């Protein structure tokens, strides 16, 4: 195999995963790759300093000029909007498949969904950005919760209703239970990341326990089982 010339940039295959491109590499990036690089670094940057962080400092971290940032995003608000979209409104089609696989028991499907979901979406950066977004503009947090309701809470409740009463109407109580499950999973992740030797050290077991509780609670709301 021919060795690369001394001083030439490493190939994509040779660059370690997650490595920050060199200045020479950045100059050669296609438009969409450079834009994604800016967004990825903006997520890290704003999670550290908050949304009050200056784009001049972000540009320095990226090794680019501030005017170049504005070639991709017309102003700081547009960049923040893109960061929030990337963080708060991400959803993988595979997760729908996990929930909708009706060959498996409902509880098993929800457990599989949440195990996949937390591996991808729960992170130190995400938690900090959610807090910063809420403090900066409550509308951003409300939009995130609306997204969760549409993509997660309603489908969870729909599958539960289909399982036990043939697809009856979803009640406000059902949505509240789904939101409580989601919040409890988030709390379990937070405890595992910040508090040593907690009951949530085994996150898979925690998710199983929380989902079992959710399934029991939502099933108890059926007309033929309610007290």
UniProtKB/TrEMBL annotation:
Keyword DNA-binding belongs to the record: yes
PROSITE patterns: HTH_TETR_2 (PS50977)
Residue ranges flagged as DNA-binding region: 54-73
Xref: InterPro entries: Homeodomain-like_sf, HTH-type_TetR-like_transc_reg, HTH_TetR
Superkingdom, natural source: Bacteria
SUPFAM superfamilies, per database record: Homeodomain-like (SSF46689)
Keywords: DNA-binding
Region (Disordered) location: 1-31
Annotated Gene3D superfamilies: Tetracycline Repressor, domain 2 (1.10.357.10)
Keyword DNA-binding on entry: yes
Compositionally biased tracts (Basic and acidic residues): 22-31
Gene Ontology molecular function terms on file: DNA-binding transcription factor activity; transcription cis-regulatory region binding
Domain spans labelled HTH tetR-type: 32-91
Name of protein: Transcriptional regulator, TetR family
């Amino acid at each position: 195999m021919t060795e690369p010339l001394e001083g030439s940039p490493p190939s994509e295959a040779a660059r370690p995963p997650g490595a920050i491109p060199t200045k020479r590499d950045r100059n050669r990036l296609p438009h969409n790759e450079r834009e994604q690089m800016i967004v990825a670094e903006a997520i890290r940057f704003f999670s550290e300093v908050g949304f009050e962080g200056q784009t001049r400092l972000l540009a320095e971290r990226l090794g680019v000029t501030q005017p170049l940032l504005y070639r991709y995003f017309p102003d700081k608000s547009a960049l923040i909007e893109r960061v929030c979209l990337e963080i708060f409104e991400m959803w993988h089609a595979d997760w729908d498949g996990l929930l909708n696989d009706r060959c498996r028991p409902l509880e098993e499907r929800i457990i599989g969904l949440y195990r996949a979901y937390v591996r991808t979406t729960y992170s130190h950066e995400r938690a900090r950005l959610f807090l910063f977004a809420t403090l900066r503009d409550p509308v951003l947090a409300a939009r995130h919760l609306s997204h969760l309701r549409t993509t997660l809470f309603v489908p969870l409740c729909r599958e539960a209703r289909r399982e036990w009463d043939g697809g009856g109407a979803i009640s406000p109580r059902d949505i509240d239970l789904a939101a409580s499950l989601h919040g409890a999973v988030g709390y379990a992740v937070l405890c595992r990341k910040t508090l040593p030797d907690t009951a949530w050290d085994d996150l898979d077991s925690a998710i199983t326990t929380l989902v079992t509780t959710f399934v029991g609670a939502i099933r108890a709301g059926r007309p033929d089982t309610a007290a």
